[in-house]
Specification:
The structure is a homodimer of 464-residue chains.
Chain A (H helix, E strand, L loop, with lengths): L1 H11 L5 E2 L2 H6 L15 E4 L3 H14 L3 E4 L16 E4 L6 E5 L4 E4 L5 H9 L3 E2 L12 H7 L6 H4 L6 E8 L7 E6 L11 H5 L8 E8 L1 E2 L6 E7 L2 H13 L6 E6 H11 L9 E7 L3 H16 L5 E4 L3 H19 L4 E3 L9 H15 L2 E7 L4 E7 L5 H20 L15 H7 L2 H14 L14
Parallel strand pairs in A: 2-4, 3-4
Antiparallel strand pairs in A: 1-2, 5-6, 6-10, 7-11, 8-9, 8-10, 12-14, 12-15, 13-14, 13-17, 16-18, 17-18
Chain lengths: 464, 464
């Protein structure tokens, strides 16, 4: 099959795009979800054009070969992991910015462009694409679209789906495998038929391969944001402070939490001079301009004060503020240094944050699992990172149990198994526990209708 | 069939919910799209509970009777118009606010609650549900969800889809006809499977019947908005002013346009003392608090000034400002007084607004059709209202031609046939012209998968 696939691809697609070297294929066969299983791909294609993507999908459909699309491979749920015998379709070389329309606040880009690279190009024109996953320096827009990536600023500015107006995608089923479909629009509003764009965003490559994205932009923010820092003697106090911010109707442009283990891990690695004694640090940002912004920043301090902080202040030192947010961005790699990380992505109603944080501590203690927690606290989106020593099978089993219990606890609080990382492989079981069985049946109905051959990233998100 | 349907419904549903009186059924058989065809319904059901909706759908599926859901009937595309032999499923009596969760900025409501009624209840708790279609005093949340309604403030705050976190709906197909499906979530973020909630919003009752909606709320706005008024000697100048507002990165919370005919129609009716001499009036609102808001309001004035206005000022008189926005809300009924109105809802990229406005004038002149234009100008969403004298068939034919030409002109500019009213019956042909045929095929694929019996509002949006 591998031979036949290669031959068919070679007839249509320049052979320098095809990767058959086993080690290179393997390096393109997994994302950053260290615990997710990885299959053995038949071949990888580093596509340069939409036509190459279309040809590849058509050929794979003919041969019933699974297609696993990938961007930079920074995913944390295994969504981009190879399945046996698949074609890995690497889109990271399709990086063109086809159009920036400043008058209409629209950009049209290829999926492989890196989030921060796009931001830099837009900044020169006074424009802004808000979604800012912590992976923004490396992750691609296509990957962000596939997982409906969130980030720090979505507490105020929304997630990827809120910025995708339209797209081109190579789809199958009713569109015919290997055909390019135009979805969505480029106007500010539109209700012409079902919102297929919103359906594709977050579908993790299971309904087709996105080859172009039309993005909604914002004017670049004006003025200087304020940073508010709060240190707490317990995670639960920090959770109370966050709940109070929401309750008071404040809308910071970021509201992040780092726990003690995370602070220590970052500090041990980078020596930034963090408040590593605290059990929890909250970092908020307020970008409202002028006096109203000053008032809002003070409002966040006041909300923090209700939860008995060690301190809560508006930072007056730009460098300090920058260091704190740098620490937030470094949290994941800092914890990864300590051992393989099993990443949670649960999201709970914001008022349940104190309860959820207390539960995390309880679960970690009971299973003897080290849990470093970072959180987009303002959204109720928690990333407990379960860390196990390399090669310790008992610890690994304990972590797996803790992982499942955390998901159940989040679901009991009215939460979801995944706030922004996607289902991929790691959250498939959680998804089944979260969704109403009938809703799951509808999900399957859509997958069957749009990919009847089940070749688009099969075995991800939904079970066959 | 009608007998059999009535009998079956009568076995499951309290008979006082059923309406068989021909005149009453007829009164429930059409929305406000005066030009759209209306079929003859078999019977109407004024549902009070989700169970009644579920029973009705199950029975209709068994008997292959079409189900046409409706709220207040304020739609402008014929989406709620009866089809022959259907059950009209009136949800306007399901008006409960089941929950207001101020801590998490979430409300759970039944579909029949009127938009403004919900707003009033939320205001008491310092909360806000932003979407504000001009029909807000009458239209229901369920209807707003069905059409993904927009409104005045969506230029800054987004449309209905942006505020729907989840729902309960009676669906069919993979879920089984007559079963209630829970979709979506109540957390701030979530990517657990395909976004079926976004798919249902704007699907105009063709995929199921929404029985409960979980809405995202915002804190009530603080401070007093400023109103900016600009009068222009041509529609094109007004369009240039709007394009300049966007180009400068300003984000007013409303940016509305009224043309001369509209101003005259409102003034003749209500005698508000409007600037009825102007060829076009722009109304903007800025709700940014404090000095930054003052600056932004002045920025809007400055942008208006670049387009040679008669005048452009920040209104200093609250009553004047209120009157101007009242005039905007009264525009549609004022024009309706002049004759049957054929309502356009095209949306173009904002920079194309001057061209589109010029084209409207040209089309109206060429066909001898009176066109009153109101527009959510800041979104590029235009409502040219084509008015014909009662009983003048030639004028009606001319208006129909002008209607189609306006759609084609919008599509040529990269626009859409419907910004916020939905496709219903009136824009079905336009939808076919707008969408990529393959995209249309995918739309049909979804409809077939989720409603294989084609009983949910058949013959709307997509042709059979």
């Amino acid at each position: 099959m591998s031979e036949q696939l290669l031959e068919a691809l070679g007839r249509e697609i320049p052979t320098d795009r095809l990767v058959t070297d086993v080690d290179v294929v393997a390096s393109l066969s997994a994302d950053d979800a260290e615990w997710a299983p990885v299959g053995k791909a038949a071949v990888a294609l580093r596509a340069r054009t939409e036509q190459e993507v279309a040809d590849a999908v058509r050929i794979c459909a003919d041969l019933r070969v699974p297609v696993v699309p990938r961007g930079a491979g920074t995913g944390l749920s295994g969504g981009a992991n190879a399945v046996d015998g698949c074609l890995v379709l690497d889109l990271s070389r399709m990086t063109a910015v086809k159009e920036v329309d400043a008058d209409n606040l629209v950009a049209v880009v290829e999926p492989g462009i890196v989030n921060d690279d796009l931001k830099a190009i837009l900044r020169e024109q006074g424009l802004w694409y808000p979604p800012d996953p912590a992976s923004a320096p490396w992750s691609t827009i296509g990957g962000n679209v596939a997982t409906n990536a969130g980030g720090l600023c979505c507490v105020k500015y929304g997630v990827t789906r809120d910025y995708v107006l339209g797209m081109r995608a190579v789809m199958g089923g009713p569109a015919g495998y290997g055909n390019v479909v135009r979805l969505g629009r480029r106007t500010a509003k539109g209700v012409a038929g079902y919102d297929l764009t919103a359906l594709m965003v977050g579908s993790e490559g299971t309904l087709g391969v996105v080859t172009e994205v039309t993005l909604r932009l914002r004017p670049a923010p004006r003025g200087v944001p304020r940073t508010i820092v709060g240190a707490f003697t317990s995670l639960v106090d920090a959770g109370r402070a966050v709940a109070e911010v929401t309750r008071r109707g404040l809308t910071p442009s970021a509201l992040e939490l780092l726990d003690h283990d995370t602070l220590v891990a970052v500090e041990d690695w980078k020596h930034l001079g963090l408040e590593a004694d605290a059990e929890a640090l909250l970092l908020a940002r307020v970008d409202t301009p002028g006096v109203a912004g000053d008032d809002e920043a003070q409002g966040v301090v006041d909300a923090f004060e209700t939860a008995d902080p060690v301190f809560a202040v508006v930072s007056t030192d730009d460098q300090e503020a920058e260091t704190l947010f740098a620490a937030r961005r470094l949290a994941y790699p800092a914890l990864e240094r300590l051992g393989p990380v099993l990443t949670e992505d649960v999201c709970v109603p914001r008022s349940s944050l104190p309860t959820m944080l207390a539960t995390l501590g309880e679960i970690g203690d009971r299973h003897g699992v080290k849990i470093g927690t970072i959180a987009h606290a303002g959204d109720g989106n928690l990333h407990p990172l379960l860390i196990t020593p390399v090669g310790d099978d008992a610890a690994r089993a304990a972590a797996q149990e803790a992982f499942e219990e955390i998901i159940d606890a989040a679901l009991r609080l009215g939460g979801t198994v995944t706030g922004e990382h996607g289902v991929g492989l790691l959250k498939m079981d959680g998804l089944r526990r979260e969704l109403d069985p009938l809703s799951l049946a509808v999900q399957h109905g859509i997958k069957s209708a749009l990919d009847p051959l089940n070749i688009f990233n099969p075995g991800k998100v939904l079970t066959a």
